[in-house]
Amino acid sequence: MHSRYHPNAWLAGFRNVRPGLERRSEILQILEQDAETAEGLSTKVDVTYSTVLYHLHNLEAKGIIERASSTPPYAWQITLAGQQRLTTY
Question: Does the pTM exceed 0.90?
Answer without folding.
Answer: no
